[in-house]
Amino acid sequence: xxxxxxxxFVVLILLLTSVPVLATxxxxxxxxxxxxxxxxGQYRIIVTNYFEAGRRADQQSGGPxxxxxQRDNQQMLTFQVRETGQRENVIYANEFCAELRNLKFxxxxxxxxxxxxxxxxxxxxxxxxxxxxxxxxxxxxxxxNPLLTGFTFYLAFPALQQNGLAIPYSSPRFPPINGEYVCVxxxxxxxxxxxxxxxDELRYSMVTPLDQKNTGRTPTTSPGPYPDVVWQPGYGxxxxxxxxxxLTIDSKTGQLSVTATQLGLFVFAVKVEEYRNGVKxxxxxxxxxxxxxxxPPTTTPNPAIQVMNRPTDLRTVDLCYGDSARVQATLDTxxxxxxxxxxVNLPNANGSTLTVRESGDYTVLVSPKKACSKVGNSQTITVxxxxxxxxxxxxxxxxxxxxxxxxxxxxxxGVVYQWYRNDVLLAGRVSDSVRVEQEGRYRAGxxxxxxxxxxxxxxxxxxxxxxxxxxxxxxxxxxxxCPQDSLPLLAGGGTQYIWERDGQVIAGATTxxxxxxxxxxxxxxxxxxxxxxxxSTPLVIVPVPPxxxxxxxxxxxxxxxxxxxxLRASPPGGEFDGPGVIDDTFSARSAGVGNHPLTYTxxxxxxxxxxxxxxxxxxxxxxxxxxxxxLITYRGNTLALAPAYTGNPVTxxxxxxxxxxxxxxxxxxxxxxxxxxxxxxxxxxxxxxTTRDTVHITVYERVWIPDAFSPNxxxxxxxxxxxxxxxxxxxxxxxxxxxxxxxxxxxxxxHQPFDGRSGGIDLPTGLYPYTLHTLPDKPVMRGRxxxxx
Length: 789
What we know:
Blueprint (H helix, E strand, L loop, with lengths): L2 H4 L4 E4 L11 E10 L6 E11 L2 H4 L5 E6 L5 E6 L1 E8 L5 H6 L4 E11 L11 E7 L17 E7 L3 E2 L2 E2 L15 E2 L3 E5 L9 E7 L40 E2 L5 E5 L4 E13 L2 E15 L11 E3 L8 E5 L4 E5 L5 E7 L2 E2 L7 E4 L3 E9 L7 E2 L3 E6 L6 E4 L8 E4 L6 E7 L2 E2 L7 E4 L3 E9 L5 E3 L3 E3 L8 E4 L5 E2 L5 E6 L3 E6 L2 E2 L7 E4 L3 E8 L5 E3 L3 E5 L6 E2 L5 E2 L6 E2 L2 E2 L4 E3 L3 E2 L2 E2 L1 H4 L2 E9 L8 E10 L3 E3 L3 E5 L4 E2 L3 E3 L2 E7 L13 E2 L6 E9 L4 E11 L7 E2 L22 E5 L5 E4 L11 E2 L2 E2 L3 E8 L7 E7 L2
InterPro entries: Ig-like_fold (IPR013783), T9SS_type_B (IPR026341)
Pfam families: CHU_C (PF13585)
Keywords: Signal
């Protein structure tokens, strides 16, 4: 496209455009983050895109956007937008200039509905949305290599949940774009301010536009930071369009101003920041392009407009709803006309007259048909349509026998009101609202005294609702309250409830269920969604008296082989339960040995939980004693008696007590035993089960040592037997040959007697010395033993 073609239009490029381009000059656009519905985190992303019209633009479709976390640039989400609505042409004030330069631009809208979880988007540093694409216009004069310079569109938004609560948030909204151009050396202004749906403060500032981060032909979603565009020498954020003054923006209103001193196509960017209570919430970055042209020194048209058939100096016109007026501009066949309402160019409104039916501020822009010069702007005519919002609203409700409804219409000055019920005038009702208590069809008539316009509101039909049927029941179907319990009650017939017991309102009881811990007379008031009330019939809840349960003690038994016995408890009619219980008897044989918990349960009423008394039936084991029949020791020894027991014995009795340190201990000691003795031990457990056992202790005075033995395998005296040595468990025996060498040595206790062999070889007949150590404190016994073969 030639550079001269590009220098005929102001191009507004708003960041956050999400439509992929391929050699299509993307003129501009904007993105909006709009909260929808009542569900926190539900948003509609609306992308408005401007393209140079043509086949390439027709092929543009939705593309990808990304959401990232500010703190660490972590990607949170990617999503696609799709086109909605019909594409429209951008309207120019001077169509001749646009056609001469072949300037045709279209606007397309793309949308995506998102559900963002506020708990996920709760980082205090907030989040941002970005989209990157390529292809600016090659004719841009203040950028280096503009054709290969791309866009990064950017919108930041705050955490959607703060202090555990979802916060309301929507991004700023901006008006439609009008086609304009800048005349060199002439003052120029452009209303770029937006509005914020949440009432947040908007602050505007000039910044450097952002380039794309990736260089591919297909748009991608990548996190920040994003690079700046490269300015030509002498240009910058505060000098994007040279002028006196250069391009500036009002920080509060967003009004752009410049008196350009240089021809060309110039890119710049504006940052729009949102503040709430002095704290920044987010921002939107927007790119612009202004074309500065040399306007011919022709006379600027100065159109005058008036309302036909009205005084020529009338600047404000009141129209009755449904009527119209015709606004006429100075007629000149050499002029182009473009009408505006509230600063926005109206489509197909390019004649010298305009029929108006809507409220607004109307102006007309006029330019020569055959020249590109300054555009003349008319004065403003304000049109006020009277009565178009005469809508009847209602608050309140007519219940079955009570209730009122407040009806109201548009509140305005200079209006006379009349009210009708079933088309019959209600005498004396002349204000903008009325309270009614009857069914019927209601409407209001409005007469505007200044204009004489009469308007009739819509008709509302009011009817009484059916009576609220309050119900109150016990969820169990039984109106008795068991001891130490609560009874759930169920309400019906409303959306809110008032509970009373014995004539007193129960504080905090407002839902359909209430669990009462006490008896009494209950009454329920049910309130439906319209505030209508109904009262239930009384419900009497009777407390069930508690019962006292007694369970007689149960004697313990020794072992399971005993007869079953009868259990006793009161009051009658209850139920016994537990191991070994059969009806009202306890069988130790069935239960087995152990401590068995038994219960006796009596219900105060069939629907109530039983009152329980408990006992333990003890089937005790019969004790057992593991004690050797006999023991051997030596005279004067102290011998520990350590039987093993079963059956949990707790009493011990040794008889006779002779030599014993404690005859009542489980493991006493026989101290300094002097002679043979037999002990009888009797034990018993807690239940009284007993058993007994005996042990005989043989006391040896010394060891008897034979002088000889004959290990000849004849079964007689084949080993050297030392009688009584078993009484000395620590005894050791050593045998030597005639040279004093050890040929045999026993373990303690002489458990393996000497057999006349050494190293597995029979020793020859002869005399062999020996030693015998019985006790550590006793002298060593020495002697000789003869081996006879």
